[in-house]
Design a protein that fits this description.
Largest sheet of chain B: 7 strands, mixed
Strand content of chain B: over 45%
Number of helices of chain B: 0
Oligomer: heterodimer
Radius of gyration of chain B: 14 Å
Largest interface: A-B, 21 and 23 residues
Number of strands of chain B: 11
Distance between the termini of chain A: 40 Å
Radius of gyration of chain A: 14 Å
Helix content of chain B: under 10%
Structural class of chain A: mainly beta
Shape of chain B: globular
Chain lengths: 111, 118
């Protein structure tokens, strides 16, 4: 089967750094995406890694190791507004490319 | 970034009625759109992949006769929940795939439609 694992909950304080890990087991792999979702809202695209290494976008960075089937999302200088759910998703290969989603990590940022 | 709109944002209907949800890519052409359903505190569940000009590909366990998908143009896909029942109450989200430079694709999501069936 296909599965993605990520922690269910993470708690941190303002200004801190948080790393959300994601390991995956899929029949095909094209890339790993990260999405943010606030309560009641739709997912917002954060980053995408197709190749090994680190992608940096402002306070957020994402890392991928294809050989380890592992990636992480790094959030720096945490702000209260970063409290949300974060999903990793693998884009599968083949004619019917689609996203396989993790169950999400609920991040609570406290003052 | 690319913008995807979804209409309506919220709908309340009586059991047995049909509800149509529209998904539009506003500033790009999307040959592929996706329809998801999300229950509270759960992850997104892919219902179907909608390809412009062809039949949708449904995920296992999703009834194609109940969830009708039409992707008539490169910017519009519709999901119709036929004969809706209370168990169909959920958050329905569409996304549109945009091809990016270097061969990478990404999906941009609409704001979602919260369906409540009484």
């Amino acid at each position: 089967g296909q599965s993605l694992e990520q922690p269910s909950e993470v708690t941190a304080v303002e200004g801190a750094i948080v790393q959300i890990n994601c390991t995956y087991q899929t029949s095909g792999f094209y890339g790993l995406s990260w999405y943010q979702q606030h309560d009641g809202g739709a997912p917002t695209f954060l980053s995408y890694n197709a190749l090994d290494g680190l992608e940096e976008t402002g306070r957020f960075s994402s890392f991928l190791s294809r050989s380890d089937s592992y990636g992480y999302l790094l959030l720096q200088e945490l702000q209260m507004k970063d409290s949300a759910s974060y999903f990793c998703a693998v884009e599968t290969t083949g004619n019917n490319r689609k996203l396989i989603w993790g169950l999400g990590t609920s991040l609570a940022v406290n003052p | 970034g690319a913008v995807v709109s979804q209409h309506p944002s919220r709908v309340i209907c009586k059991s047995g009625t049909s509800v149509k949800i529209e998904c539009r890519s506003l500033d790009f052409q999307a040959t592929t759109m996706f329809w998801y359903r999300q229950f509270p505190k759960q992850s997104l569940m892919l219902m179907a992949t909608s390809n412009e000009g062809s039949k949708a590909t449904y995920e296992q366990g999703v009834e194609k006769d109940k969830f009708l998908i039409n992707h008539a143009s490169l910017t519009l896909s519709t999901l119709t929940v036929t004969s809706a029942h209370p168990e169909d109450s959920s958050f329905y989200i569409c996304s549109a795939r945009e091809a990016l430079a270097g061969g990478a694709d990404t999906q941009y999501f609409g704001p979602g439609t919260r369906l409540t069936v009484l």
